[in-house]
Amino acid sequence: MREFELLRHIYRSNDRLDVAVRIPPGDDMGMIRFGGGDILAAVDQLVGGRHVNLETTSLELVGRKAITRSLSDIAAMAARPLCTLVAATLPPDFGEERAQELFESMRRTCERFECPLIGGDLAFHADPSHPLVCSVTVLAVPGHVPPILRSGAKPGDTLYVTGQLGGTMLEDGSGHHLTFDPRITEALMLTEMLGDRLHAMIDLSDGLGRDADHIAEASGVKIVIDAARLPRRGNASWEDAVRDGEDYELCFAATGSVPTEVRGVPITPVGEVLPGDADELPARLCVRDGDTLREAGEFGWQHEA
Questions:
Q1: Buried-state track 116-143, b at ≥16 Cβ within 10 A, e below 16
Q2: Per residue in 117-127, pLDDT tens?
Q3: Do 124 and 212 reside in the same domain of the chain?
Q4: In a domain, 106, yes or no
Q5: What is the DSSP string of 198-234?
Q6: C-alpha span between 238 and 211 (Å, rounded)
Q7: Domain containing 224: what range?
Q8: pLDDT at residue number 45
Q9: What is the pLDDT of residue 9?
Q10: Are 130 and 205 part of one and the same domain?
Q11: What is the predicted pLDDT for the residue at 191?
């Protein structure tokens, strides 16, 4: 089973949803009209052994990542955090002291990013071989403008990324994927600076290749990434920058003048948006490496079973 094939099956039922659902499944957050206003919601999960190495990672960083993964979805929509709920399933031998350390880390992280932890659920696996699972739900409200979707990129736009890409996980399991800050404030500032010139946005969790391809698919366009312009972390190659995932930076399509940095975070133009029927491109997402065009939509991460 491939993750994105299952998700597309789910998205095919979107037209059955009530009109109160303003953003259906298929974007970084869903949105529903409630009490005269709009509420955005997203859920993500952290699985021990899949997203973190519990043997080499402190529970402080495990709890932090469990929360910031979901907060990054709020950034992708340029929304304002409202609150957090956590449902965790612990191995039976996890221990009370370790459980308290984990939840204190999650609580502190929620407070730091002004998205307070207001509730959740706790359960224990019967089998000690089963991993730690933290399922984190975040609620948010729209920011300065309506939520920025994946589907608004237009031919003529430039594709940008914040920060640096690639090399997010080191051999011992440490690295940027544990310590990143979700770009919530930066996203809100971009909406203030660019207004309606900011057309589409996503956070980079599955790798630039996968996630830029999501923008291209949702927007009905083609995208060409310039390998030479990618801002790379450390010794990462351009392939790493496109493939690695867990960057949790912003990728967005905009037109006109765009600042080179926001709050000290660099912003780099990395590609161009073309019409969906651009015959010169062999695929929906390509990387230009010198004189070579390479199909890149499969670069990145997806869960398979």
A1: ebeebeeeebeeeeebbbbbbbbbbebb
A2: 999 999 999 98
A3: no
A4: yes
A5: EEEEEE-SS-HHHHHHHHHHHHTEEEEEEGGG--B-T
A6: 16
A7: 158-295
A8: 96
A9: 62
A10: no
A11: 98
